Structure formats: C-alpha cells, structure tokens
Amino acid sequence: MRFLDRVVIVTGGARGIGAGCSKVFAEEGGVVAILDRDLSAAQEMASKLGTNHLACACDVAVESQIENALQAVIERFGRIDCLINNAGIHPPDTPLVKMAPVDALRVIQVNFMSTYSMCYHALEHLKKTRGTIINVSSMTAVLGQRNSTAYAASKGAQLSFTKSLALECAEFGVRVNAILPSNVDTPLMREWASSLADPQAALERIAALQPIGRMASPEEMGRVCLFLATEDSSFITGQGLQVDGGASLDY
C-alpha cells in the first residue's frame, strides 16, 4: 500500500502504459483519476479498478478539456498527489518530407504541449501535497528514430521540460521526473507496426532490440512510475530514467 489514499491523475489512463499505471497505483492503495478522450474506455477501466476511482473525458490537445478535467478531480477528491503525463500519439512511419508542418504540430501539441498544460493547471495543487510529476517520454528523446522526427522531437521536448520544471519545483518539494521506455507492448505500438509492410516481422524485430529479448509490459512501466511517485525515490528529481531493457546499450 505504498500509495494509500493518495490521488494520481493518469492521462491516457485507459489503455497502454496509462492503463498499466492505473492498475499498479490502484493496487497500491491509490485513488486514480483516469483522463482519456475515450470516456467509455476510461469508465470501464475505473470500474475494473474498484470503487472511488474517477473517469474523465479529456482530449489533452484541448486546453478547456484539461481545465475541466482537473476541476472535476479537485471537486471529487480535493487534492492531487501525482500527475502522470502519459497520453500521446505516434504517427505512422513517415519521412520528414512527407509530413507537413501542420501534421508535425499536431504531434507536438498532443505529446508535449499537453504535458505543459497539465503541469500549468495542476502545479499549485501539487505544491500543497508536495507531490510528484512523471512525464512518459521515450528513449527516442535521446536516440532519435528513423522516419519519426516529429515524435522524437516531441519526446525530447518532454525531457528538457522535465529537467527545467524540476529546478522550478524543487523549493516547493515537488519532484519532476520522466521515464524513457524503449518498446512496450501497447495498442499504440501495434498501431505503429501496422503502418509497416510486415507488422508481425516488425514486432519480432522490435522485441529483439532489447537484450533481455522482449518488449516490456505496461504494468512494468507502471511500477517504475510508482517508484518515482513514492518516498522510495525521494532524492531523485529532474531525471530521465531509461526503462529500456538494455536497448539503448546496443541500439
């Protein structure tokens, strides 16, 4: 019960890494607010977790929906102890010359500006609880990814933002960190693979990139986020933790 009676917000919390976080935090006694643009999926997840959890419809690319969702969390629970900025998109395998700037801007809006906006609106509440912020970035933030320039750039922005915000928040006891997953077996991963010529071969090749021979599960990412949200990591802030199964060692 390492998160007993504390409130965590998980954006994109109904599936993928977000669902893994929602499950892990609920198992550890936390109260979970699941923000997702798919309200029915969020409600289904909240119901599976047990009682007293909250599902909110929220497209993180829309500022007003972020404000409304955070207001609903405060009205229901009166506090925020942890914010996990997980919601994101990964476009199909696309070279830069075939991705118009307006399409790249959409990626940056969803993957990075939503993180900025969530922190902007939640920070005063997190100061009251001396809470934590965890941004779900990607190892592409530091390694890059072929035909994914907009995605890698958005994740790199998340990482730089994490470090800068950690400096601003340290005096208030709010810790800010990021995780940089390699390959996680999520619906988003499978959607990306489906854009390639041979999706199954691509998934097998991706699994082999990790020296331990497989992709991660969403729950494994959730357990790392739990570590960063609790006193177990009390001396860690401003870090991008590469949770990659060793992939970056021989990428």
Structural summary, described in words:
By secondary structure, this protein is of the alpha/beta class. It is 48% helix and 14% strand. Helix 1 crosses helix 9, helix 3 packs parallel to helix 4 and helix 4 runs parallel beside helix 6. The longest helix is centred in the middle third of the chain and has 29 residues. The protein starts with 6 loop residues before the first strand and ends in an 8-residue tail after the last strand.
Sheet with the most strands?
A: 7 strands, parallel
The order of strands across the largest sheet is 3-2-1-4-5-6-7
| Unreliable residue stretches | none
Sheet-strand content, in percent, reads 5-15%
Mean pLDDT: 96
Q: So what's the overall shape?
A: globular
SSE order: EHEHEHEHEHHEHHHE
The helix count comes to 9
**Secondary structure tally: strands:** 7
- Multimeric status of the protein: single chain
Distance between the termini: 37 Å
- What structural class do helix, strand and pairing data support? alpha/beta
Helical residue percent band: 40-55%
Which value, in Å, is the CA radius of gyration?
17 Å
What is this structure, in a nutshell?
By secondary structure, the protein is an alpha/beta fold. It is 48% helix and 14% strand. It is built from 9 helices and 7 strands, in the order E-H-E-H-E-H-E-H-E-H-H-E-H-H-H-E.
Task: Describe how the helices and strands are arranged.
Elements: E1 7-11, H1 16-27, E2 31-36, H2 39-49, E3 54-57, H3 63-77, E4 82-85, H4 101-129, E5 132-136, H5 140-143, H6 149-169, E6 175-181, H7 187-193, H8 199-208, H9 218-229, E7 240-243
Parallel strand pairs: 1-2, 1-4, 2-3, 4-5, 5-6, 6-7
Helix pairs in contact: 1-9, 3-4, 4-6
